[in-house]
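Structural prep section.
Before we set up the soaks we want a predicted structure of the protein with flavin-adenine dinucleotide in place, mainly to decide which crystallisation condition to try first. Input record follows.
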Amino acid sequence: MKAAIVLNANSISLQQQAHEIQSMLDTIETGFCSVEMWLFYQYPKPKVFPKIGSPLSGIKLIRLENVHSPESYLQLLERLMGQYPMDMLVFASDGLGQELASRLGYRLKGSSCLQVEECSLKSGSLEIIKPLYGNNLTALFVLDSFPCCLSVAKQVFCPVKMIPCKSVSIEACELDQIQPAWIKESRTICDEPGSDLVDADLVLVVGQGVNNKETMDVLQGIANTIGAELGASRPVVMNAWIDMNRLIGASGLIISPKICIVAGVSGTGVFSTGIKKSAFIVAINIDKKAPIFQMADVGIVGDLQEFLLELEKVIKADNEKKGLHDRAGSGIES
Ligand SMILES: Cc1cc2nc3c(=O)[nH]c(=O)nc-3n(C[C@H](O)[C@H](O)[C@H](O)COP(=O)(O)OP(=O)(O)OC[C@H]3O[C@@H](n4cnc5c(N)ncnc54)[C@H](O)[C@@H]3O)c2cc1C
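Run finished without errors. Recording the tokens verbatim:
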């Protein structure tokens, strides 16, 4: 059995993607005789590569001239699979990885599975373990159509190192890119710059209970005073009360702060995936039966704004006592 992991050297999350793929590969006990890295790049040609714990049998560098859409990757991947057939292709957990895994599995008449946590080879089939129904169920799938195209599950932020990989054969694949006739025009909309959310010690996560943009702005001020990074649940980002790149949960970021204050969030499984690795969780909700209280270390039944304004006052007074009132990030001591 042969496998290739597919990564994009131009992605800002390359090292985190490699960590997530490695976590999944670590669950495979036996069965794969070779694992290659297929690395897309635009410019310059990479000289260092994400450190993968599994021994690599080779690295293929694939130059992408024009990236119009996932179609640009799909065309090249189809041709590479013609030249170098693999039994399994492993993609990153991000939107692109998920789209490539599902569309390529279909095009190659194989199979695909997304958000894979564990994988093993059993009597010629691939057994997959992945969360289902908003993390309320762990399911086992058996894939027996090859190639299997998988995207991996998100993991806590833990980027791997970049290394030269001197002992591994590195091959440059120069494939011509053909513009599909159906793409008439393309535009690139850049993401907002990344935030410090994933490695913050103190995070305030706000949910639909915030109710409007005005209250959201008040909470941003409180977060600044107490030295917290601000995250949000899906309804909050969908209402554009905060940037999309601050979404917490299975579709967004997985955080692991020392203290996570969760205000006005009901606590569905898909959201909870994003905060469950926090060391200490404080939940504030007006509904004493809200599911979020089940995972909280401290639960406060009450209005979020009332509580957070009080907390801000206490921390301000404390900082003033210590003479820290003008210093950013001088908030809660964990
Ligand atoms: C495939 C899929 C993926 C998803 N991925 C994500 C994801 O990654 N992240 C995510 O967040 N969601 C995700 N969702 C959506 C998720 O299912 C929930 O709809 C969402 O998390 C609910 O957000 P919420 O808790 O803020 O809102 P609600 O469920 O509406 O909860 C609001 C809470 O605020 C409380 N409240 C109201 N007023 C106050 C007040 N004044 N003070 C204190 N508490 C108050 C209420 O009691 C309630 O518990 C996904 C859904 C699907 C189908």
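Observations: The first strand starts at residue 2 and ends at 8.
Flagged for discussion at group meeting.
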